[in-house]
Amino acid sequence: MENQEMKHEEVFKMPVIGDIAPDFTAVTTTGTIKFHDFAKDKWVVLFSHPADFTPVCTTEMSGFALRKDEFDALNTELMGLSIDSIHSHLAWVSNVKEKTGVYFDFPIIADIDMKVSKLYGMLQPNESETAAVRAVFFIDPNKKIRLIMYYPLNVGRNMDEILRALNALQTADKYKVAMPLDWKPGEKVIVPPPKTLAEMKARNEDTSVERIDFYLAKKSI
Question: Among positive and negative, which fits the CA dihedral 202, 203, 209, 211?
């Protein structure tokens, strides 16, 4: 029992928000990639799927491919992963393109030895020890992990939410603001609350913001 718990702890070890994304070298559908050398000065959305040639994964990978232009516009590279061989990946990419016309032209990691899956906590034993869950890591140009999403094997992700979250992170960084519930591009953002009495006085006198109270104020950007 103790050995099994230790095994699960090792498999489930994962980075957290604020960590530097673990570096790795892996074979992908676009060639061998060293992660920290990939996408210089860009964001990366690194996501895992359980297996090639499966229905939910096909819809998700197609979703990323169909909306790749939106990720490009947000200076973001896509990188997929599953615990399959490079030959399986290439056959799946070819099959989907033939059957649907959708082409997965971003790198997909062939993580047959589970090295990257273990580095990122994508293997969660209570779900599966041989298939990665549906993880999404948002990684900024400094290679810092900024947001993590996990979905079980039987529930597909929401592409609108992935793009919304990415846009929110980038907008918050650019304008030094925070995002309210359900924020979408073009909507008002939250101004950071004052930290001193002087800042609170200035906030109370500032007519350029929508002031609900001294600690909660919104503005357009």
Answer: negative
Give me the architecture of the 2-175 domain, per CATH.
3-Layer(aba) Sandwich (3.40)
CATH topology of domain 176-221: Antioxidant, Horf6; Chain A, domain 2 (3.30.1020)
Query: Domain ranges in the chain?
Result: 2-175, 176-221
Q: Which residues are catalytic?
A: 57
Cβ pair 46, 81 in contact under 8 A: yes
pLDDT in tens, 140-196: 999 999 999 998 888 999 999 999 999 999 999 999 999 999 999 999 999 998 899
